[in-house]
Amino acid sequence: MVASFLSGRRVSMNYGSISVTRSYTIGCPQESNSGPLLWLIIANDALKLQFANDTKILAYADDFYLFAAATGKHKVREKVHQALEMLQRWSEGAKVEFAHDKTQLIPFGKKGKHRHPPYCSFAGKPIKLTRQMKILGVILNEGLNGLAHLDHIRGKITKILNRLTIARGRRGLSGKVLKVLYHRALYRILLYVAPAWWAGTCRQRDRMSSIQRQVMLAITGAFRTTSTAALHVISGMIPSTLVCEMEVAISQLKHQHAHVSFLGEEIIGPILEVYHHTWTHPSARTRVQWDADHPSISLSIYTDGSKLDGRVGAAFHVVEGTFTVDFQFRLEDYNSVFQAELSALCQALQWKLINRPHQHCDIFTDSMSALKALQKHQPRNNLVEEIKAIQDGFVSLHWVKAHIGVEGNESADKAAKEATIRANVDLHLGLPIRSLKTDLKRRILDHWSRTWEDNENTKGRFPYGIFPRVSTSRCLDNRLLTQAISNHGRFPSYFRRFNIKDCTCRCGEDTSDDILHYIFHCQLVAHLRSRIRPTLTLPQVISDKRMAKELCSIIQFVNDHEEDILQLED
InterPro entries from the xrefs (predicted)? Predict the structure, then answer.
């Protein structure tokens, strides 16, 4: 019926008493909600064209992407011309036109840039040769090394950061808020389809670290000479290079690659839970309803899932008059409680379908998340779709609050906990993606911690004495405290280290003239100390709010009275 809209079309125009009607056979119907669907019907014929080997076509909206692979530019040109001729014939039959001024050609070579790239034409018009092309938000260059995309990301994030930095100065936007915005918005821009372009090369790592470094400097207010390793620890931000590695590993596991390595170690473990989509007509999809009622019916089933001491179990408790029985199932230890709850529901429905097929039944569960998942139009979960497929009109679902003394629910909860100690695993489900991410994030934190604690690491050793452990919950957004922790501030030791100017402190008491000198010893700022004592350590000072406030006032005084405190050497 939908395809019939593409034939027998007419266009009418009324002007006063005059009416003109003409046949319309060109292109796709426009200005309607069904326009995109009708275009897909037209474009689908182009996707069915039988091209030569190593020639593929993809389409997104009204854009077509043609890929041709061959050795030698002459063979590439020949394949491209053959494919374009087929597309031209299709466009003439479909009565649509390609925008030749927007058509571009980009050659991908094993060694990157082509000295003599192939030149092709389309319908007698030369195709514009380009060195970069944007496909679905990703910038591809000739070398397919991801550097062009990283440069594009840097530009976008720099613009956003500039505006946020202005907001921080004028509107009081704190560094902690900047960190939240980074994780909620900028993070996704930075990691967008990372598995498609991230290869983990040194150049990619340098550029990725450089982009994240801009964010960390904006959050902490640190000097630009502060090491990147120290900025990660001070801001509590995981290195984005490690997160890219995680995204690639997850993608490879989803696509069931034989060997997947992460941070130098091969991931050996259970098969990842992969959703297998099966198309069903919208009218045939079961609409699941549930309520919080507690009807009294002859057949009632209570379901529950539990995780105890690292083991996972599921169970359902059947009540039929005076007859009661428990059914228990142990799952894999890596399975989640959500999987256990869904498994209990699924097993209960299967038992009912086999043993009481035509008897009305009420099924009770205390898992609100499972019931809400069943109500989703597209749950993208194999267990949920299986439950919806076997549920019939003889079953009513109900939610019951947990641990309020409902006898059936308490029995199901007890049975689920007992199921965790069964000797053998009864239900074999895949590893949920959320559990995989949790495990990989734990590995990232361990790797980050080992790198920070490495004795051979020469970067950020002064901050290491204050923060020997990494933490994602830490975020120091006070620029004065950051100067103290990094030892990068307007101190004589800093000026001498970076060859800015040769100077010392006028008090002459300490030749180091670093942050510790001003916090504990310098007599020029002694009037600002009331709680800080030389017997204390810098971590002790920073951890105390009142002493930290004194520390900030000392650093601010040094910054404001630099000419009075510093003495230039001859």
Answer: RNaseH-like_sf, RNaseH_domain, RNaseH_sf, RT_dom
Q: From the CB of residue 470, how many other CB atoms can be counted at a distance below 10 Å?
A: 20
Task: Give the C-alpha separation, 353 to 392, whole Å.
Answer: 9
| Three-state SS annotation for 198-238 | CCCCHHHHHHHHHHHHHHHHHHHCCCCCCCHHHHHHHHCCC
Reduce the DSSP state of residue 21 to 3 states and report it.
strand
Alpha helices per DSSP H over 397-506: 407-419, 433-453, 461-464, 479-486, 492-497
What averages of pLDDT result for each successive group of 10 residues across the chain (570 residues)? 68 85 72 77 91 92 91 88 94 88 88 78 90 92 92 94 82 86 91 94 96 94 95 96 95 88 85 81 77 84 95 96 94 95 96 93 94 89 91 91 91 96 94 91 95 83 93 94 95 92 86 89 92 92 94 94 84
Does the 282-430 domain belong in CATH 3.30.420.10?
yes
Q: What would the two tokens of residue 327 be?
A: 């059914």
Rg (CA), the chain: 33
| Contact assessment for residue 416 and residue 424, using Cβ atoms and an 8 Å cutoff | no
CA distances for 30 relative to 35, 95, 103, angstroms: 5, 14, 22
Residues 6+ apart with CB under 8 A from 136: 60, 193
460 conformational bin, left if phi > 0, alpha if psi -120 to 50, beta if neither:
left
Query: In this structure, what token pair is assigned to residue 57?
Result: 């076509």
Tally Cβ neighbours within 10 Å of residue 260.
19
Joined tokens for residue 33: 């909600």
pLDDT, one tens digit per residue, over 265-322 is 888 777 888 888 877 777 777 778 888 888 877 899 999 999 999 999 999 999 998 8
- From CA 173, how far away is CA 181, in angstroms rounded? 11
Closest C-alpha among 444, 442, 436, 459 to residue 241: 444
Inter-CA distances, 534 with 238, 508, 514, 531, Å: 34, 17, 14, 10
- According to the 3-state scheme, what is the secondary structure of 20-57? EEEECCCCCCCCCCCHHHHHHHHHHHHHCCCCCCCEEE
How far, in Å, CA of 505 to CA of 151, rounded? 43
Pair of tokens at residue 75: 């063979």
399 three-class SS: strand
Position 33 scores a pLDDT of 75
For the stretch 80-103, pLDDT in tens is 999 999 999 999 888 888 988 899
**CA-closest candidate to residue 558, choices 525, 523, 509:** 525
| Positions of CATH 3.30.420.10 in the chain | 282-430
Compute the distance between CA of residue 514 and CA of residue 486 in angstroms, rounded to an integer.
Answer: 11
| Pairing mode, strands 138-141 and 132-135 | antiparallel
